[in-house]
Amino acid sequence: MAGTGVGHWITLHGGQHVFIGESEKAARARGSQLKFTKRKMSIALANESLVAKGIGGQGLGDNEPFDIIAGRHAVEVKTLIAGKNPKITMRADALTRKINYAKVNGYTPMTVVVDARGSNPSYYYKDGVGSFRLSNMTQASLGTIRGIIHG
To answer: What is the pTM of this model?
Structure first.
């Protein structure tokens, strides 16, 4: 319901009521967000490198729209390190940048997720980019993903 969450109502001149603050959904999202540390960053970067090697791709530099180019695929790699929520998210501006880059350069976008929350990592892939739940992705080995990319 709009207007519930953390904040307060104010009355504007003319009697219009406006809620100032964040919704319950935004408050829950902020509350479940995990801090991204240098340790987590090094794990994510190591996984990007591992995925690039495993799928026969070339890692791109920092601040590029995608993490890896493999064949005619532009691959975004996300790593789940902690947390209970089995999903990845992409901001709207990042998503637009990725889609435009793939279109202009003739790449097929793909997302690969490394679920590193257990003792043995699991890999998931999905054509395209976006915010996905693992249950809507396909679990596969890096070799299988390599075969899909390189035919």
So the answer is: 0.77
Whether residues 138 and 86 fall in one domain: yes
Question: How many CA atoms, within 13 angstroms, populate the side-chain half-sphere of residue 123?
Answer: 20
Alpha-carbon distances, residue 86 vs 89, 105, 108, 151 (angstroms): 10, 31, 24, 29
Backbone angles phi, psi at 26, to 5 degrees: -65, -40
Tell me, yes or no, whether 141 and 67 share the same domain: yes
Q: Which residues contact 133 (CB under 8 A, 6 or more apart)?
A: 86, 87
pLDDT tens digits, residue range 33-78? Answer: 555 688 888 888 999 999 999 999 999 988 899 999 999 999 999 9
4 and 74 together in one domain = no
Start-to-end CA distance of the chain, whole Å, equals: 48
Domain range enclosing 110:
35-150
Identify whether residues 27 and 89 lie together within a single domain: no
125 shares its domain with 141: yes
The conformation of residue 107, written as its DSSP 8-state character, comes to: P
